[in-house]
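The protein record quoted in full:
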Amino acid sequence: MPFQIVRNDITKVKSDAIVNTANPKPVIGSGTDGAVYRAAGEKKLLAERRKIGDIKAGDAVYTSAFKLNAKYIIHTVGPVWVDGNHGEREILRSCYSKSLALADELKCKSIAFPLISSGAYRFPKDEALNIALSEIGKFLLNHDMDVVLVVFDKAAFELSENLMGDIEQFIDEHSVAQLHKDEAYAASGFISNIDERRISAQRANMAYRMSAQGVDEEFSGKSLNDILSNKGKTFQQRLFELIDESGMDDVAVYKKANIDRKLFSHIRSSKNYKPKKKTAVAFAIALELDLSTTRDLLQRAEIAFSESNPFDLIIEYFITKKIYNIFEINAALFQYGQPTLGC
């Protein structure tokens, strides 16, 4: 997957380049900086770091990775948050853009970032996250590299309060609506007790059947061979039909979908390709499909949305709001412990 968010210790991540939130002076700092030195080997790393000297805030340099499971350590100095009026945001953007450019220059195929300046430097976590996603997203539109944002614990990762509030309200409203529907089913005697998974499967099946107009008349008097010879478009066929309609080229689509080139090529050559839900939804986001068209595309892969599934509700929230930034969506999915979009 070109971009992913993981919860881990960055010193334990395998990557061509590990980004260190460095002290501007060639000394061993605290936090991520101290952890990187300890894991790489303090004496050798400090000796190489001293050869470089001071690093200006927003700049990026590299050293060997020594004992880390990487080729390089990219050292970047993040901004100390004062009040937002001292160039903090511009410096943080520079940390990401210069680190990525340096990794590209070093011909790295992968790079792992911490959430720069969000700890001891007190940069607001939600803003730090938005800047990280923005700069990584811009880079990946024109480059092929696996980028990992490594979050040490849940407390280090934070969406904006407004976005969190909107998502939670959306989930709550749909959960209440779902509960009322389930209670109505139970009260009518349709089911003896409420089983969310069975209800969801029944509802998805009913929706699929109702989507085909006059299904009984269509099948009436036809043999099984006749029916199978006139089946609808597959997921793959409909996907590339939608891509053609969008006017985007293949590269733009798979990059916006957070899909790697190899998988995309495999899908293009496989008429009966059956995607995982997160892959199918990623294409719907990349193509900026509305909810109805998204559901139709998923049905062709025998996938349905459920009103009791947090993943599905979060996706529906973003599509309903016409927010199609896959990195922002993946941050929300990660926050709620759901699978992120892409391959």
Remarks:
- The longest strand covers residues 146-151.
- The chain has 15 helices and six strands.
